[in-house]
Amino acid sequence: xxxxxxxxxxxxxxxxxxxxxxxxxxxxxxxxxxxxxxxxxxxxxxxxxxxxxxxxxxxxxxxxxxxxxxxxxxxxxxxxxxxxxxxxxxxxxxxxxxxxxxxxxxxxxxxxxxxxxxxxxxxxxxxxxxxxxxxxxxxxxxxxxxxxxxxxxxxxxxxxxxxxxxxxxxxxxxxxxxxxxxxxxxxxxxxxxxxxxxxxxxxxxxxxxxxxxxxxxxxxxxxxxxxxxxxxxxxxxxxxxxxxxxxxxxxxxxxxxxxxxxxxxxxxxxxxxxxxxxxxxxxxxxxxxxxxxxxxxxxxxxxxxxxxxxxxxxxxxxxxxxxxxxxxxxxxxxxxxxxxxxxxxxxxxxxxxxxxxxxxxxxxxxx
Length: 367
Known about the structure:
Organism: Sulfidibacter corallicola
Helix content: 10-25%
Protein name: 6-bladed beta-propeller
InterPro entries: Haem_d1_sf
Low-confidence stretches: 1-8, 108-137, 145-154, 163-177, 213-229, 250-262, 360-367
Strand content: 25-35%
Order of helices and strands: EEEEEEEEEEEEEHEEEEHEEEHEEEHH
Number of strands: 23
Strand order of the largest sheet: 1-23-22-21
Mean pLDDT: 64
Distance between the termini: 64 Å
Number of domains: 1
């Protein structure tokens, strides 16, 4: 009897670099320009580092007095119209790609838009959308920024009716799950909790172009969906207990716990603008929990695992930029991997991140 030994070859990235960041990178902290250069936030000054498509560190910029209030100030990075835009709780600041400051716009709280609370959705060009992280109401402004003047535009859900969106039918939910924009800056996705679907808006024509996610409606079983939601709340409460916070304290409300559109566990927009949805499933062996749709609402074939989609920062040519994290050293990084090797690379190098007190205070990178 003969045995054939099969060796599983590890995926070797084109290059891999470590970055000065204290938690795993995401599309909120990393952007890629049309040439394949990478811009990523740091945990300390200078706040932005530029890397070439070959992985070489090129430039550091956005220094003290120009960047966020502090290293731990909530901040996000955009690449819009060949400019970098960094946002913290007080300012939008525009920079050229060589780090020269171009424009600063101070944000003001108005009509219920609290800029000290933040949620940002990065894009490559066109529009970016900033949302109030509390429950949306009809008069809650949505802040859009455009490369052209005026740089800031406020629109309410009621005003979005001009897009063809039925604000009366919208069931508010946390906008971290409720609204996102694709990286081309053209399409905005809004999750509708009542209708079990996503609306798609074309920012160039200001019209709704259709709805997606209807194919998942059979998975929305209210009975077990509610059970899953309650279980998630209990898990969130347990996380608070571990952190030493009383989940039943008077100042804690249901807003402290992530809410979900029934049946939707999580969702994201991939670098090509496709909607990727992970659904709750009673039987994952039978039900396909991850689905993909284009902007027309048509199902697409998924090329990557859910874990891979979460970690893909962008594409350039035949390569993907993938977020990495050294679980022992608590060191974030970026790897350049061939597209066909992304799934294998992600499976071989999982990210195990545990939020601890040090991350709230800047980790080992705090100064």
